[in-house]
Every structure is written in structure tokens, then in C-alpha cells.
Specification:
alpha/beta; five-stranded mixed beta sheet; two-stranded antiparallel ribbon; 5 helices; 7 strands; about 40% helix; globular
Length: about 150
């Protein structure tokens, strides 16, 4: 699993609308909060996405972007975004190439671990939180990022 100080791997993935996103494009204007989650519509993942949705205006105000990643297809992500009015992209990683590159695949390659990264414009991982079941740890992590970015 990638850790603080590591360089985030380059990638190009489509989101729930079919739009292509790359690491370069996502960090071009500021820091990136990249969160990996197991699956659309599960209770924990829904709670996490909705909590991030609710603080999204503060994330943007702090000059950061947030993007979610999981292995579901474009249609599943689109329904998830629509149902919960998520204002940020969800990237499709069907073959789990990005999930593997970050080392966040589950035991024996099954599933996806719940991990959130803060990536700077130089593509360095600045912070990370790993909490497979404690969604609130990820929300507090993002709230701390917002606070830290506001102090600059």
C-alpha cells in the first residue's frame, strides 16, 4: 500500500459520465483527495459518499478536488451519483489497475480497502488514512485537510 511520501502512480480512468480523468488533470489546479471504496450502494460506502457530499463546498473552497474510485461500472456509478446527488466524479476501475497500483485491494485480491489519500500537485502523497469500516475516520481526515488548507 502506498504511504506518505510515495509518488502517486499516473493513471487515466473514465468517470460515471464517460469523461476521462488523469492524475495530471486532477492535480493541475490544487490538491487531490482520492478515496477508494468497496462498492456503490453499500451502507458504509453510501454514508461515506454522502458525508463527503455534505462537506464538498468546503473542499472546493479550500482549493482541493475529491474523486472516488471503485471497481463498479459506469452505469452503477451514474445511478449512485444521481441517487445521492454527489457533486464529484466517481472513477471506474473495472480491472482494478489503479486499486492494485495503490495497493488497496482486499485480502487475496478480493474487494477494495477503504483508503483516502491527499495528493499534492507534485504527485506526492501527503497524507493517508486507512480504516476499512470506520467511515467517520475518513470524514475527519477530509475535515482536517480542509482545515490545514485553510491555514495556508
Amino acid at each position: 500500500m502506498l504511504d506518505v511520501g510515495d509518488t502517486a502512480p499516473d493513471f487515466e480512468l473514465t468517470d460515471h459520465t464517460g469523461e476521462m480523468h488523469s492524475l495530471d488533470s486532477l492535480v493541475s489546479e490544487g490538491k487531490l483527495i482520492l478515496y477508494f471504496y468497496p462498492a456503490d450502494f453499500t451502507p458504509g460506502c453510501t454514508a461515506e459518499a454522502c458525508e463527503i457530499r455534505d462537506i464538498h463546498p468546503q473542499i472546493v473552497e479550500a482549493g482541493a478536488k475529491v474523486v472516488g474510485v471503485s471497481p463498479q461500472n459506469e452505469g452503477s456509478h451514474a445511478r449512485f451519483v444521481d441517487r445521492y446527488e454527489l457533486p464529484f466524479p466517481l472513477l471506474v476501475d473495472r480491472d482494478k489497475s489503479l486499486i492494485r497500483a495503490f495497493g488497496v485491494n482486499g485480502p487475496m485480491g478480493f474487494g477494495v480497502r477503504r483508503v483516502t489519500y491527499l495528493i499534492g500537485q507534485e504527485k506526492q502523497i501527503e497524507k493517508r488514512v486507512v480504516a476499512d469500516f470506520a467511515v467517520q475516520n475518513h470524514v475527519r481526515f477530509i475535515e482536517d485537510v480542509i482545515t490545514d488548507l485553510g491555514d495556508y
